[in-house]
Amino acid sequence: MSVSDQGATVWLTGLPSAGKTTIAYALAERLRAEGHRVEVLDGDEIREFLSAGLGFSREDRHTNVQRIGFVAALLAGNGVKALVPVIAPFADSREAVRERHAVAGTPYLEVHVATPVEVCSERDVKGLYAKQAAGEISGLTGVDDPYEAPQTPDLRIESHHRTVHQSAAELYALLDQRGLV
């Protein structure tokens, strides 16, 4: 298997509007241009199609993360770079995904897109922070629902101090360092 055929899961975790999906798509574009097989498993799309019917209780969030982790491991085990921009607020859920990959011998990288909640609420890509502030929704991760930031991620990106291109380049450099590109 050549290096470019090596699959891997790159899990981008962080608060809503941290920049996870934007960075994932920027990296995917570069990897595809180099001939890599890449899939972005966007958390919102997965919720709609694979995890429809799940709510936002701790148990449902865990189930959602495990489903996404299973699909990512399946893709990565077949030579695809699976980029996974998903909040995954609980450390134990992310650790279970990491362990699934370890058992299969599949590379797994955890990337914390460490954007402060104040910056995320200013970006408010989906209007969630405004809805939470207006009392229209509750259970917003990092505001009135917990987010357990990774203690030792493979990479921590402070997207509020970098452009999208710089963030994606930093992540690409990690893949290169690990022999995955």
Q: What would a concise description of this structure say?
A:
The chain is α/β, with parallel strands linked by helices and 181 residues long.
Features:
alpha/beta
Task: Give an overview in words.
The protein is 45% helix and 13% strand. It contains 7 helices and 5 strands, in the order βαβααβαβααβα. A 5-stranded parallel beta sheet has the order 2-3-1-4-5, with helices on both faces. Helix 1 packs across helix 7 (164-177) and helix 3 (58-76) runs parallel beside helix 4. The chain starts with 7 loop residues before the first strand and ends with a helix.
Question: What is the number of strand segments?
Answer: 5
Name the average pLDDT: 93
Helix-and-strand structural type: alpha/beta
Helix content: 40-55%
In terms of per-residue confidence, which ranges show pLDDT below 50 for 5 or more consecutive residues?
none
- Percentage of β-strand residues: 5-15%
The DSSP helix count reads 7
